[in-house]
Design a protein that fits this description.
- By secondary structure, the protein is mainly alpha-helical.
- It has one domain (18-252).
- Helices cover 79% and strands 0% of the residues.
- The protein contains 10 helices and no strands.
């Protein structure tokens, strides 16, 4: 399937049908998750009470910003090795959406964290390993977009951006395991859903009443972001076609 969609003409035909379906399903699932999280599930006493309902936005956005960066790095790798133009189009489309989800992760984390930790997040960011590594992720997304915009040709921008994206991939395991590896330098709780080794033994995990709407909300956000990425990819392809048409008309004139 991916080989078929790698053809720009097939991708345009597929995305024209898929975008409204994917975005519609994403909105429905995300809306149901938010309804459950904000009005149905009980408060969490040891996580700030009602303020812990921010998890239904914070946790999916945290997972998704890491997944989107992984997609950015993989797309960059495909372009860098095989010079597949659609992979570069995908990378350019992923970057702003990934930056947005990373910023959303920070904002909702601040709302949830301050009353739970008893400290303002801006006062602990310099020594909290999780906060610092996520901040690096945000800078990587922004840096990728700024680097591409700063170079004078698309090829130079794609090459420099691809190198940055691939090198920055090392930050993802740091984000994931920072809480477990540097316990003395973080005030984040251990992972509650995806746990390994001692973390799995020490934590009882998240109750299904919270986990089910959380995972459904995550699925909804995956669908929503996928639809937005395809929408931006279509806009990029149309822009390239328009530039090629203008250049051809100028040459003919």
């Amino acid at each position: 399937m991916w080989t078929i969609l790698a053809n720009p003409h097939r991708f345009m035909g597929f995305s024209r049908v898929a975008i409204p379906i994917v975005i519609g399903l994403g909105v429905l699932l995300s809306g149901w998750s938010l309804y459950q999280g904000l009005w149905v599930v009980p408060p969490v006493p040891n996580q700030g009470g009602d303020i812990a309902r921010a998890m239904f936005i914070h946790v999916p956005s945290a997972w998704l910003c890491m997944g989107l960066y992984g997609g950015l790095a993989v797309s960059s790798f495909v372009w860098f090795i095989w010079r597949h133009e659609l992979a570069d189009v995908a990378a350019r489309a992923i970057a702003p959406i990934g930056a947005g989800y990373t910023a959303l992760c920070f904002a909702t984390g601040a709302i949830w964290g301050e009353p739970t930790w008893g400290k303002a997040w801006r006062n602990v960011i310099l020594y909290d390993s999780r906060l610092m590594s996520v901040l690096v992720l945000l800078f990587l997304f922004i840096g990728y977009m700024a680097l591409r915009a700063a170079l004078d040709t698309r090829q130079k921008g794609a090459r420099a951006g691809a190198i940055l994206a691939m090198v920055g991939l090392i930050n993802l395991p740091i984000i994931k395991f920072s809480v477990d590896l540097w316990k003395e330098s973080t005030i984040h709780q251990p992972s509650s859903v995806i746990r390994f080794g001692e973390a799995a033994a020490e934590s009882s995990g998240i109750h299904p009443v919270f986990l089910v709407p959380l995972l459904i909300g995550f699925l909804g956000q995956i669908l929503l972001s996928s639809g937005l990425i395809m929408l931006l990819m279509r806009a990029e392809i149309f822009g390239q076609q328009a530039d090629a048409l203008i250049a051809r008309r100028l040459n003919e004139a």
